[in-house]
Structures are given as structure tokens and as C-alpha cells.
């Protein structure tokens, strides 16, 4: 009798190397939501884009610009360890919620500040919306709906420092209308059949109730009405290898915020402006701080139309600064 051939167990593929960092997928701005069942929608969060790297002996929290900010988000790092995953990379946004459950960048900035503030770091929540790596497997090549299917059981139902960014498959125009009605920043549309692509592309689309971007503060004008306060912040965007002036913002400050920010800026005054600009009352500063600004549109000469100040951050992670080259 012929000997039965022994079945060779299938080869186990070697694990995929875990990336030290993944450049995030960035949503492209569109005026209207896309139509069709291929698109899923989420709330557009107003915070810091982060990647949470869970590794065998540590957790790292990496910003969009590639900086390790684990020490700034201790509650998120602690919660990530409780997920009991060997290795993973979760993509998401860190936010602080207001009393109506809306993300508020100004509240987040104050929670991250080094000074005593009304909001603490423990209030910061990480809303996970994508899974890029899991237990030795790089998932970026999978379609979005498959990555979502793997993400949901990991974070769904959690109500601590890590939560699931809810996804809905609905009519985009109606979802956008409701989002704006409730005072949200806007919505994100994601193509359910596409892989994860680093950089800005139309697989992910942002539709905002008002435009919102980051600009470098290059100076200020003192208030003529209130001693010690700001009149306007002078703003710049990237263009080529340099910076170009895009206008000023003089609304959106509380009196307290205005005086505190002026004191901060007076500590970094310079006689060498970062942009070419002549204004009678301008005080130029080192380009070390970034302003979050909401605005309606751009003028024909590339200046912000109807801007309103929303918050300030350090330039250490300036990957989000608006570029006129895009």
C-alpha cells in the first residue's frame, strides 16, 4: 500500500514591518458632498490629527508632522495600553468637547497649554477613524470598508479617552445640512472601496460649513481702543520656500485672550520680518506661533475674506500650515 502523503501545513507569511511613521491621508476640500453608496460620512473633528502607535513595549503618539507628543496625551496613551493589542497603528483626532458635544479647538489648545487652564489634559479624547496596522499586518492596501470593519471591534463602545468616530452611510447633502445646523465644522466623506493613501487626495473629501485653516503669525497691530490688547494678528502662508502675507484677523478674541496673546507675542518681537510688508502700526514677530482661522473665502489678491480667530498653537508641528502652492 502506498504511503499516504503527509499534508504540509500552509506557510505562514512573515509579518509586515511596522512603520515608524505613516504620513496621514489628508482630505481634499470640496464644495458639496459626493453622492452614491460608495461613500461613507463622518463628522469633521476640530483638533489635532494623531497616529497612536501601539508597540510591544511602548505606546507612541505621533503628530501629523512626525513629532512624538506622547507626553502631551497621557490619558490617550494609558487607554491605548488597555486595548491589549500586540501591535497597531490607529489614525484619528484628539479633541476636547464642549457642553453640546462639539469639538472645540480653543478648548483643546488650553487643555494642552503649560499654564493653569479651565480644561485639563484628562479631558482630551482620541476619536479613532482608521486602522493602518494590526498584529504584524500592514492594512493600508485594504479598502476603507475593510479597515473600518477591523477597527470597530477594537474601539466601539468605549467611552474613555479613546473612542470610535461614528461612520454613517447616508445622503451626504442631508448629513452636511444637519452638521452645519448643529454648529459643527463640517463633514468628511470617505470612498469605501479605496486603500489608504498618504498625502492629500480625493479619496477623502472634506466639506466645511466655513473654511478653516492654519496660518503663521508674523506680527500684530496693537489695539487703538483697549490698552495692552491686540488690534489684529498679521498672518502668513507657505508659498514655495518662503512665507507670504495673507491678511490679518481682528475678530474672535475674548479680552483676556487678546491681552495674553499680545504679551506672548511681545516676547518674540523681531526687527527682521518674515514677510515683505509695510504697515504703519505693525509689530513684527518671530514666526513661531500658528493661528487657527475660520474664514469665508479668498480675495482675488490672495487675502483671507472675513477671517475669525479660533485658537493658537506652537509652530513645533507646522505641517498643517496652509500653502498657497496646493
Q: Helical region count?
A: 5
Mean pLDDT: 89
Q: Roughly what fraction of the amino acids lie in strands?
A: 35-45%
**For the record, what CATH class of the largest domain applies?**
Alpha Beta
- C-alpha end-to-end distance: 74 Å
Runs with pLDDT <50, length 5+?
A: 114-119
Element pattern in H and E: EEEEHEHEEHEHEEEEEHEEEE
Number of strands: 17
Shape, please? globular
CATH superfamily of the largest domain: DNA ligase/mRNA capping enzyme
Sheet/helix structural class: alpha+beta
Architecture overview:
The chain has 326 residues and is of the alpha+beta class. It has two domains: 25-208, DNA ligase/mRNA capping enzyme (D-amino Acid Aminotransferase, Chain A, domain 1, 2-Layer Sandwich); 211-317, Nucleic acid-binding proteins (OB fold (Dihydrolipoamide Acetyltransferase, E2P), Beta Barrel), CATH 2.40.50. It has helices spanning 74-81, 105-112, 144-155, 172-181, 255-266, and strands spanning 25-29, 39-43, 48-55, 58-63, 88-95, 125-134, 137-138, 162-164, 186-191, 199-208, 211-222, 230-239, 242-249, 283-295, 297-298, 304-305, 308-314. The strands form four sheets. Strands 3, 4, 5, 6, 7 and 8 form a six-stranded mixed beta sheet that branches. Strands 13-12-11-14-17 form a five-stranded antiparallel beta sheet. Strand 15 (297-298) and strand 16 (304-305) form a beta hairpin. The radius of gyration is 22 Å and the shape is globular. The protein starts with 24 loop residues before the first strand and ends in a 12-residue tail after the last strand.
Amino acid at each position: 500500500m502506498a504511503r499516504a502523503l503527509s499534508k504540509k501545513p500552509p506557510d505562514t507569511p512573515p509579518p509586515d514591518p511596522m512603520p515608524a511613521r505613516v504620513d496621514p491621508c489628508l482630505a481634499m476640500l470640496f464644495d458639496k458632498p459626493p453622492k452614491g453608496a460608495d461613500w461613507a460620512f463622518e463628522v469633521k473633528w476640530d483638533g489635532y490629527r494623531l497616529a497612536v502607535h501601539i508597540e510591544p513595549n511602548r505606546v507612541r503618539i505621533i503628530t501629523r508632522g512626525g513629532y512624538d507628543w506622547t507626553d502631551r496625551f497621557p490619558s490617550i496613551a494609558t487607554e491605548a495600553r488597555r486595548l491589549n493589542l500586540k501591535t497597531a497603528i490607529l489614525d484619528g483626532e484628539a479633541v476636547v468637547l464642549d457642553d453640546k458635544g462639539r469639538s472645540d479647538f480653543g478648548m483643546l489648545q488650553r487643555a494642552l497649554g503649560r499654564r493653569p487652564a479651565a480644561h485639563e489634559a484628562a479631558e482630551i479624547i482620541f476619536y479613532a477613524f482608521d486602522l493602518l496596522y494590526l498584529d504584524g499586518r500592514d492594512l493600508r492596501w485594504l479598502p476603507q470598508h475593510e479597515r473600518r470593519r477591523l477597527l470597530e471591534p477594537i474601539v466601539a463602545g468605549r467611552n474613555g479617552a479613546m473612542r470610535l468616530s461614528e461612520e454613517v452611510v447616508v445622503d451626504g447633502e442631508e448629513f452636511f445640512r444637519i452638521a452645519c445646523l448643529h454648529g459643527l465644522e463640517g463633514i468628511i466623506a470617505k470612498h469605501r472601496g479605496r486603500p489608504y493613501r498618504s498625502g492629500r487626495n480625493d479619496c477623502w473629501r472634506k466639506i466645511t460649513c466655513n473654511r478653516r485653516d492654519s496660518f503663521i503669525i508674523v506680527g500684530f497691530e496693537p489695539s487703538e481702543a483697549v490698552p495692552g490688547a491686540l488690534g489684529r494678528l498679521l498672518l502668513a502662508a507657505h508659498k514655495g520656500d518662503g512665507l507670504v502675507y495673507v491678511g490679518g484677523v481682528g475678530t474672535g478674541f475674548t479680552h483676556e485672550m487678546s491681552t495674553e496673546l499680545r504679551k506672548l507675542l511681545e516676547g518674540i518681537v523681531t526687527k527682521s520680518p518674515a514677510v515683505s510688508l509695510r504697515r504703519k502700526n505693525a509689530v513684527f514677530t518671530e514666526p513661531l506661533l500658528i493661528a487657527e482661522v475660520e474664514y469665508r473665502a479668498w480675495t482675488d489678491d490672495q487675502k483671507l475674506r472675513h477671517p475669525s480667530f479660533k485658537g493658537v498653537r506652537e509652530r513645533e508641528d507646522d505641517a498643517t500650515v496652509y500653502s498657497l502652492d496646493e
